[in-house]
């Protein structure tokens, strides 16, 4: 058997590439290297703005030319960095050399020694990761989560009056509406989205052990922490003044825990929708040309929600691992985070793929109101809760002397199927006030939904 030509190993880079390609703009090796170049360039500009070591501030065109190294970063730079790293065997050093080359081409050799000045690799990396993760979350992942929330909000409004039999422990229970059940997920996901949006992105720039030792050795009179803070905050990040060689990654652990939490709520959504499809509350809309089963032509499988389940589980497994491991670094530095952080994109990729499947899946289902109504009409015994509760209220009000209303209804309904006529006869014989009796006689399973409809207004 002849060997295959080189193939991608991850399905995110193969089968599912189209659904996650936007993440590659930020959470790929190239995206990381572009951010590294950005950090190196902005540090040069900061140092020269402060006229350190006899340098002069760059003029507007020189700054713009330096920043174009970042904005024009493309395949040529990717290839050049690959060649440089093959020699340096060090990714950040390769970035430094690329920036030095660009300084020479721009006629700025006089400041080339300020490239990567007093910086350890982690000074560059922690800021680059913060920039790329922040932009990936804000520009790609959160908008897709918002799309899911928007689709769910639309369904909640559409189905707000569609009564359905609820199931607690899988058994027939007090009715609800499909709209209210979907609104529960909207509310949950909105809270988490807000928490993700508010997450801090911390950065440090303080040298090999977080002490500014090399900085002070080069120029003791400068307020290096103030310059560091100005630099980090100028990148739109939150300055961390107290670190070892590495920024402590706590912000990452917090962020990935929140995204993993969103994954689990979405997983709950996917399994609920799957279950509603299974019992017929949702019909799947046939898609032209699609095949559900290789042998059973009638089938339409809920593949979108099953795919989402699997990818949410994979995403959370990766993000949970990152949250657990990134907060530990032996003494002042070890390199375990270097390997783990390269998988940030994988964790977000599986989540993004799941979000894409959920949006698509929600667009491929429709409610079966006939089945919902039939299911409710076949389960009149669920009104036992209402009847025993009304009796208790009547006893408290002095309009009834019935003892143990719960036991009375338990005897009538538990494990039994009873119909409208049975309940009407039972209610008619009860010792309760006439107003209560009339309310109960008018009650139907479809009408026993309480405030399910107006509760949806809490989403507004």
TrEMBL record:
GO MF entries: N6-(1,2-dicarboxyethyl)AMP AMP-lyase (fumarate-forming) activity
A Gene Ontology BP annotation from the UniProt entry: IMP biosynthetic process
Pathway in which this enzyme or protein is active: Purine metabolism; AMP biosynthesis via de novo pathway; AMP from IMP: step 2/2; Purine metabolism; IMP biosynthesis via de novo pathway; 5-amino-1-(5-phospho-D-ribosyl)imidazole-4-carboxamide from 5-amino-1-(5-phospho-D-ribosyl)imidazole-4-carboxylate: step 2/2
Highest taxon above the source species: Bacteria
EC number: 4.3.2.2
Keyword terms of this UniProt record: Lyase, Purine biosynthesis
All copies of domain Adenylosuccinate lyase PurB C-terminal, residue ranges: 329-449
Keyword flag Lyase: yes
Pfam families according to UniProt: ASL_C, Lyase_1
TM regions (residue ranges): none
Major enzyme class: lyase
Ranges where the Fumarate lyase N-terminal domain occurs: 14-308
Keyword Endoplasmic reticulum appears in the UniProt entry: no
Function statement: Catalyzes two reactions in de novo purine nucleotide biosynthesis. Catalyzes the breakdown of 5-aminoimidazole- (N-succinylocarboxamide) ribotide (SAICAR or 2-[5-amino-1-(5-phospho-beta-D-ribosyl)imidazole-4-carboxamido]succinate) to 5-aminoimidazole-4-carboxamide ribotide (AICAR or 5-amino-1-(5-phospho-beta-D-ribosyl)imidazole-4-carboxamide) and fumarate, and of adenylosuccinate (ADS or N(6)-(1,2-dicarboxyethyl)-AMP) to adenosine monophosphate (AMP) and fumarate.
Protein name in UniProt: Adenylosuccinate lyase
Upper taxonomic lineage: Bacteria, Bacillati, Actinomycetota, Actinomycetes, Micrococcales
Gene name of this polypeptide: purB
